[in-house]
Amino acid sequence: MWIRTLRLENFRNYERLELELEDGLNFLHGPNGSGKTSVLEAVSYLAVARSLKGASDNEVIRWGQQGFGVGADARSEESSISIVLKYVRGGGKRVTVDGTALTRLSDVVGLLRVAWFCPEDTWVTKGGPAERRRLLDMTLCQLDAGYLRTLADYRRTLRQRNEALLAWTPGAESDRIVDVWTERLVEYGSKVIAARLAFLPRFSIAVARVHQHVAGGGELNLEYRGNVVPAADARSLVDDLPGDVTLAAQHDLVEPVRERFRDALERVSEDERRRGFTLVGPHRGDLEVRLDGRVLRQFGSQGQHRTAAIALKLGEAAVLDEEGHGVIVLLDDILSELDAERGEALVECTSEFGQTLMTSTRLLPEGYAGAGKSAVFRVEGGEVVRQ
Amino acid sequence: MAGFPPALDRLVQTLGRLPGIGRKSATRIALKLVSSSEAECRELADSIVDARSRTVRCSECGSFTEDDPCSICTDTRRDPSVICVVERASDVLALERTGRFRGRYHVLGGVLSPLDGIGPENLRIDSLLARVTSRQVTEVILALNPTAEGEATALYLARILGSRGVTVSKLASGLPVGGDLDLADELTLGTALEERRAF
Ligand SMILES: Nc1ncnc2c1ncn2[C@@H]1O[C@H](COP(=O)(O)OP(=O)(O)O)[C@@H](O)[C@H]1O
Ligand SMILES: [Mg+2]
Ligand SMILES: [Zn+2]
Predict the structure, then answer these.
(1) What does pTM read for this prediction?
(2) What angle do CA A71, A75, A79 make, to 5 degrees?
(3) Range of the domain at A4
(4) What is the pLDDT of residues B106-123, one digit of tens each?
(5) Cβ contact (<8 Å) for A176 and B159?
(6) Does A63 contact ligand 1 (Cβ within 6 A)?
């Protein structure tokens, strides 16, 4: 799915905007504070019902207004779709697809698939595990609506179980309460872990391929790390799966993971009751990134981290694009972070995806591969003009 | 812009506190009411107060009734050996609409939720156990919503009932995940009931 027309109403600094976008590269340039990022943010609302910048719904309402709306007419080779998301302060977000209201907001996720990359993301391989976990979850949620629901149930159960652990006192009744939450945690958590394990080989291949292209050398490899299934064990579980490892293979993984999750919780059971929170589970998982066999987080240079981050994000775009679904790549102010050569490689890489929205304070340098074919927009003072 | 006159504004505020009614609907309803006859308004006000004063909880099953125990609990044609456990009284209505259940009900009044401070002592679990032990109950069907809390509560009940020698079963899946029982259509709910599984 690619966006033909994008509409914003009382969103950030836009009172009203209607923008015709093209396939391929859409290049938005303009001074700082002119509203470039806000356009990408609006697309993220349509794709995943929230701001990929992490802003709250109230924050993005145009100052002095009571609510905002974003909408898109999108099209793929076979079909077209019209999505509208509206939010009124103090109310909930509502989405209509082709005029029909969705009963659950989360049902919108996956209709438009997006991969987003902004300057802060250049450190995704260097910082703590939370950001890498988020990248993994965002990708899986867009690929598989079941994953999104299971992850939401897992998080909810985790909070309930932590509360139950905090309230725990020695005795059969207290144990019984903790136990039922443990069972549910294992149920949802095993599915989350299994999906991540089944997905990783495919993700790793896509990321390695992009990395090869952008960095021109060095083998990047991804592996899922968690405190439920030890790495070597996980490797043999995945290897044992028949045929290609696809998301569907997760079903064969759930049972062995469930066993291991139960055992892991059993081992920390006393510790958890003493400390009052859950110690093992997919909420502690991480994505280990290795360059030529060595852990990037520990030894990577600035340049290597940057290139790895690009590879992760474009690798994400590549898997979202599989099976012809189409992906919209959002690249916010990223050229400023890269030297000319990497910048050009990045622009070239995006040409394999259906649609890219890229922002910059400057114009694309002359002679960039792909620059000639792109649609260029000038952003200034809440207006966007096609050039 | 000038606001509504105070009395009308108060009505909008009051209506807006009702479930499922946002500001817009509240305003629409309020405007409709103030432009209808006094008799019509009186009728609405009376029916609210009347319903409130006549309706009680059935001391047996916990659902809404005017006579205690309710008509389901006193209906001798209904099978007293099967109890269907639900979260809310509105779920009883949803299951009754399917017309496929001939046993009796038990309304829990909620689900376990440590985050909200709701434990077994806050639910109608003791009275369920009392019914199960003192009557000739042989099967308990757990018809809780398929949410994280509903599933945990079902598991809790299955464990404490399991040791009391009754068969415990659960509605078959097919219900919308994370959805509300009382929003499921009759056919889906009826099928889920008939294809229930032993815990
Ligand atoms: N809720 C809001 N209402 C109105 N203006 C806003 C709001 N939030 C941010 N802005 C303003 O919108 C402008 C656009 O921001 P942004 O899209 O981040 O610009 P850019 O990416 O071009 O630097 C900024 O000048 C900012 O001050
Ligand atoms: Mg910006
Ligand atoms: Zn009754």
Answers:
(1) 0.87
(2) 120
(3) 1-113+321-387
(4) 999 999 999 999 999 999
(5) yes
(6) yes
